[in-house]
Amino acid sequence: MSGPSKRDLRHAARARRARLAVELRGRDGGAGVAEAAEAIAETVLRFVPDGGRVAVYESLPDEPPTGRLVERLLESGHEVIVPVVLDDFSLEWRYAVRGTVGDQGTVTRRQGPPDASERSGWLGVDALAGCDLVVTPGLTVDRHGTRLGQGGGCYDRALAHRDPAAPVVTLLHEGEASELDLPLDEHDQPVDAYVTTTGRLVRLR
Ligand SMILES: Nc1nc2c(c(=O)[nH]1)N(C=O)[C@@H](CNc1ccc(C(=O)N[C@@H](CCC(=O)O)C(=O)O)cc1)CN2
Ligand SMILES: Nc1ncnc2c1ncn2[C@@H]1O[C@H](COP(=O)(O)OP(=O)(O)OP(=O)(O)O)[C@@H](O)[C@H]1O
């Protein structure tokens, strides 16, 4: 017998995320998000090699925050790349700029061909091949490392290019890991660990 579909699981996970994000924003007199951003940065920084290149996403308001992580990686001399979504749901990559956070542009497909100046800053759809660590978004992850994302398949496509030696880490709100095994399709790329908004690291593989 088959369990719930990815679509149903995604729907439930989005509702849970909205609740957890409200709770986080209200925590500690409004300092909850900044504390989570610091906790995530602290934990992730521990497993980045000196001077390494790291792929990070630019977080939207309900997502585990990545702004502080990007800031601290840049401060400590790492290279940070962030995704641009192309119209076929593949990901292009560009260097992160200090102080940027995600806006709708981060998750809206890039329509039409880029102009020359835009394209000149792009690093290629295979840019994950040159990264030492990949930090992905995700709605939930199970104990085997199966990840459920927003449903574009963007990260499954992108992760196919990664260096197999580079860990893949998903950021989750505390309480979002899946106790049940998630559906696994052939194209699904497993993740090695997740880090939560309290800075907790869980290795899966
Ligand atoms: N902050 C952040 N950045 C991220 C992701 C993410 O989950 N979080 N992504 C994780 O994968 C990628 C973007 N994922 C996407 C997944 C689906 C659609 C999509 O279906 N877009 C529809 C419009 C949807 C709408 O408007 O509601 C479309 O373009 O037709 C676009 C991007 C890359 N960047
Ligand atoms: N490597 C790939 N090549 C072509 N299509 C793919 C690839 N990976 C995934 N897809 C397609 O993308 C769609 C969404 O996949 P899935 O539901 O697993 O997304 P997701 O992992 O939740 O999203 P995301 O990776 O963007 O976070 C599916 O229709 C799938 O067939």
Automatic annotation (TrEMBL):
InterPro entries, sorted: FTHF_cligase, FTHF_cligase-like_sf, NagB/RpiA_transferase-like
The protein, known as: 5-formyltetrahydrofolate cyclo-ligase
SUPFAM superfamilies listed in its UniProt record: NagB/RpiA/CoA transferase-like (SSF100950)
Organism: Humibacillus xanthopallidus
Pfam families given in the database record: 5-FTHF_cyc-lig (PF01812)
EC top class named in words: ligase
Keywords, in A-Z order: ATP-binding, Ligase, Magnesium, Metal-binding, Nucleotide-binding
UniProt similarity note: Belongs to the 5-formyltetrahydrofolate cyclo-ligase family.
